[in-house]
Recover the amino acids of this structure.
């Protein structure tokens, strides 16, 4: 079996058991369900709330640089800290956090393969206790790396000029406009469908039943079978940008595609635009 | 210093079912004397509901009731 392009971005649950006491390792749980951490978490792990801590709480944007620095410092994360992210829904928002940490150039951040599901299924240790964390000092380096982020203009160009592969990672029902959001989540858009030219490759297709990532050969077959190849830029999108950060992680770090961006505006931006073209063709 | 209370998810089980026309995944386990159940939609892979109870059946019934409510609220648009 071929190795992932960047295996250093991924740890397994056994690695976490062996290293969770390491003072230079910080475990962070990031869940869709922001109450998840309180139901039991890995001992020593802290939690980040994606609705308040991983975004700009005024305008729609990623976490601003000053807030990011503060978040790191309050989490006891210094520039040389190894950060291990994990969460529910097969690491949706853990990947979202990783994507933002890469934008802000944190040196060593990784995902725990399989996330919370894998940890629970293996019957590993959990606690309700919240660790006391000593504040750290964190220095921001230069400008954010926006080469891994796509904006509306980029998505529009990809749609009209076909200069990048657009990967819609939502479910087929969302892609075709049958539903506007996963059941239980707010619709937050005016129209259903997808960006013209996008391929529908649901994020979940990259995962095994236990939440871990499929092999590199399986992943390569999945994306190349849909025409998403490493010789061409790729832009992933979903509804609000977290599922697509999961796919961004797969394309960039597991398959090693050189130019992959996450369009975090996603369908809640495109599906609300006046006169934006929309396709609703069946998958 | 008080020592940390350590728990483990026990007897983790996962299965797929169909609920009101939707494919769902049901995961349940015992944690600290209580049973927990999580229901997700298979297509979206998103957690739909969670329930807890003194028994697995009770936790699953609570989660499935909530899941039913969430699914009933989901608007489905006709193909056009």
């Amino acid at each position: 079996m071929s190795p992932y392009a960047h295996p250093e971005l991924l740890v397994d649950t056994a690695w976490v058991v062996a290293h969770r006491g390491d003072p230079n390792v910080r475990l962070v749980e990031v869940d869709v369900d922001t109450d998840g951490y309180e139901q039991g978490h890995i001992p020593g792990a802290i939690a980040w709330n994606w609705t308040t801590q991983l975004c700009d709480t005024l305008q729609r944007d990623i976490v601003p640089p000053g807030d990011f620095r503060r978040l790191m410092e309050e989490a006891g994360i210094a520039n040389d800290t190894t950060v291990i992210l994990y969460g529910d829904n097969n690491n949706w928002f853990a990947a979202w956090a990783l994507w933002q940490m890469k934008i802000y150039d944190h040196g060593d951040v990784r995902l725990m393969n399989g996330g919370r599901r894998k940890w629970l299924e293996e019957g590993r240790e959990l606690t309700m206790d919240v660790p006391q964390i000593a504040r750290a000092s964190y220095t921001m380096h230069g400008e954010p790396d926006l080469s891994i982020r796509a904006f509306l203009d980029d998505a529009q160009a990809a749609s009209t000029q076909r200069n990048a592969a657009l990967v819609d990672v939502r479910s087929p029902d969302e892609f075709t406009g049958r539903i506007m959001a996963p059941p239980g989540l707010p619709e937050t858009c005016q129209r259903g469908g997808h960006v013209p030219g996008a391929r529908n490759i649901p994020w979940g297709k990259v995962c095994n039943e236990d939440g871990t990532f499929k092999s590199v050969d399986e992943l390569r077959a999945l994306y190349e079978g849909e025409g998403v190849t490493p010789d061409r830029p790729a832009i992933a999108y979903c509804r609000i940008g977290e599922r697509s950060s999961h796919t961004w992680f797969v394309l960039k770090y597991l398959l090693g595609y050189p130019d992959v961006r996450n369009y975090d505006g996603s369908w809640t931006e495109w599906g609300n635009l006046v006169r934006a073209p929309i396709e609703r063709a069946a998958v | 210093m008080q020592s940390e209370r350590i728990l483990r998810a026990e007897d983790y089980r996962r299965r797929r079912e169909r609920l009101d026309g939707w494919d769902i995944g049901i995961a349940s386990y015992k944690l600290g004397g209580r049973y927990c159940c999580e229901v997700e939609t298979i297509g979206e892979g998103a957690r739909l509901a969670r329930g807890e109870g003194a028994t697995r059946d009770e936790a699953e019934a609570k989660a499935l009731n909530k899941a039913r409510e969430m699914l009933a609220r989901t608007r489905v648009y006709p193909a056009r």
Observations:
- The interface with chain B takes residues 32-33, 39-40, 43, 88-90, 117, 120-121, 123-129, 170-174, 176-180, 182-185, 187, 192, 202-204, 207, 209, 280, 282 of chain A (CB under 8 Å).
- Residues 147-270 of chain A form a domain with the Oxidized Rhodanese; domain 1 fold (CATH 3.40.250.10).
